[in-house]
Amino acid sequence: MQNWENVYAARTDRIKSSAIRELLKLSQQPDVISFAGGLPAAEVFPVDLIKKAVNVVLETNSDVALQYGTTEGYTPLRKVIKKSNEKYNINFDIDNIMITAGGQQALDLIGKVFINPGDKVLVEAPTYLGALQAWNTYGAEYVCIPNDEHGMMVDQLEKLLSSDIKLIYALPNFQNPTGVTLSFERRKILIELAEKYNVPIIEDDPYGRLRYEGEHLPPLYSISGQNNNEYNGNVIYMSSFSKILSPGFRLAWMIAPKDVISKLVQAKQGTDLHTGTFSQVVAYEVCKDDFLNEHIKNVCRVYNDRRNVMLDTLCEHMPDRVSWSHPEGGLFLWVKLPDEMDTEAIFPAAVDEKVAYVPGSAFFADGSGHNAMRLNFSYAQPEQINEGINRLSKVIKKYI
Amino acid sequence: MQNWENVYAARTDRIKSSAIRELLKLSQQPDVISFAGGLPAAEVFPVDLIKKAVNVVLETNSDVALQYGTTEGYTPLRKVIKKSNEKYNINFDIDNIMITAGGQQALDLIGKVFINPGDKVLVEAPTYLGALQAWNTYGAEYVCIPNDEHGMMVDQLEKLLSSDIKLIYALPNFQNPTGVTLSFERRKILIELAEKYNVPIIEDDPYGRLRYEGEHLPPLYSISGQNNNEYNGNVIYMSSFSKILSPGFRLAWMIAPKDVISKLVQAKQGTDLHTGTFSQVVAYEVCKDDFLNEHIKNVCRVYNDRRNVMLDTLCEHMPDRVSWSHPEGGLFLWVKLPDEMDTEAIFPAAVDEKVAYVPGSAFFADGSGHNAMRLNFSYAQPEQINEGINRLSKVIKKYI
Lengths: 400, 400
Hints:
The structure is a homodimer.
Chain A: H1 19-25, E1 33-34, H2 47-60, H3 62-65, H4 75-86, E2 97-100, H5 102-114, E3 120-125, H6 129-136, E4 141-148, E5 151-152, H7 157-161, E6 167-170, H8 184-196, E7 201-204, H9 220-224, E8 235-240, E9 252-255, H10 258-272, H11 277-287, H12 291-317, E10 323-324, E11 332-336, H13 347-352, E12 355-356, E13 358-359, E14 372-376, H14 382-399
Parallel strand pairs in A: 1-12, 3-4, 3-6, 6-7, 7-8
Antiparallel strand pairs in A: 2-9, 4-5, 8-9, 10-11, 11-14, 13-14
Helix pairs in contact in A: 2-11, 5-6, 5-10, 12-14
């Protein structure tokens, strides 16, 4: 009988179910109010419009929608994304964009094309867990740079960049997990130093369009590039339909210099041939008449309400010595308990109280963050948020 | 300005657009009759049923269909596949199956989980090009075993297996590219030797249900396993919805021992989180009432006609010293020209005659196969097949 453990590749030592994932399974009971996921609200899915679009697609374009497609992605959809990005100061040619099966695949392809075993990636501390998962497989090592309420603390950047960093990974808008936004001044410093040390930046921006207050800031992609002719910047930009339309379509995009897109496309070919044509053609049909702009306003209204309820309820219920971020957009906020507390240790007690979160240590490449937690405010409805924060504050008060 | 070439990982040296892919671009003109693709016929897509299914899904289950899903795949769909596999002697528990984004992703995940740089994979010569593309990235080396009209020549197997082979890759039914089927006797020998040398088999079976003549043969998966309790066999089985329903859904599945599935699921999590929920829920709705069995009969009728037209026209037009396989199912047949001929060299002449194929060398890990070509008979309509083979024979006659 085969002993499969003996057949696995060495890299699988780094592909593991985390302790935190096991913890989170505890919270999958129907009466638990979970702030742990990163799910959009089902209430904002434009179901009727999608239904209409699917019927049009199947009546007029089924030969394309049900057939194999190109690895770069469905060209009409790429054009729609191009147009919609122009509103956010991101200008590029059609050969600068490819469609991926969600943002996670974009991260995987970046790992595949750029990361040699032992390469150092500069990540924020905390950072998006899924990027670490994607790049662990390719043998990435991590160098951490801390965040404060204005994002990555770029005053520490130059020292770190002098130590042979391969890539910088940045989530400038309403960062997952903290909800903080990188200030304009810091964006400029980040670009300047990345160019000085010749280190490319991966700009991960799934939430940038979900802003509930303040002004939109220019993306790293356009601060770096001149945008006159061929893109000559130092940034690979990625964003997604998951938070602004539907994660069930598994559609995201990457924007990069043409040669880089061409290499990423070749890598994608061996990875999954292409992203689902059916989803792409339906998403095109939904979005082609500039639907997203109006839709995003609606999504922002709903999430802004939920964010405000969470912020208000935190103010009302949380004991002294507990602090939290004030996200101007996105899906998450970040709660810090006193240093001596451990959010992993009190997690079972929270589940006993029927409330769940993600312990902060999940988001630190260096294993710190034991006294923090990530709360999602997009999925639960306002009254549940109110009740859930109430429950959570009881648990914290008990252990503080 | 960034010199991106300097930032790529070493593995990208093996991620390249092939010369043949560049050649094939020549054939993308509307008046070229192409036998080069591996596309199902759009005529057999069950468009009306899919439309009905999508409307049901969006009316009753949109919260699930448009939301994030689990990495293992949508459980009702996994159950439907389980039931449909039982007809083909493949029995397993729900924990033995996962959904992937097409068969190509299954190959990528196998590479990620099993292949260390330098590991030797035994592949048929010729074999499926996409497997080589997927595994090149992970540093696979290939050991080739030739095919004849009964599939892999297993009399050469024992000698090859004694040289530290990590995995065996087999396409037992209507193999891509040759169309040949591995005989039952050879299946038993393959399993026996793989077990003796303790080398797992990857059984790739996207075409097995598309049989136009002869009897269904038991898959390697069930010849190897005892199927009484826990699967104790030596085979990872994979198949796909692409050829029996729609490739645009990007849905395939892998069946393997539970621990192996669990490791593959962890790898998939970092790769793309999960396969598109929308496609999965729609496919479930389409297939839940045993639709596929009837539908496959219809697909087989259409493809059998086209295969017969191709076989008849080859007989009628091809000069002496040209031979071809007689596939009992699937999408492809394999044409051999005299040894001194080179199908890559005459490809431009074929395109001038407005007909295209894939040169045989694309499918050989060792670069041989210069005198062969793969022809697809599922996509072009019968009258086009007739005309296309006529054109092709003219080219061959000119150069023979």
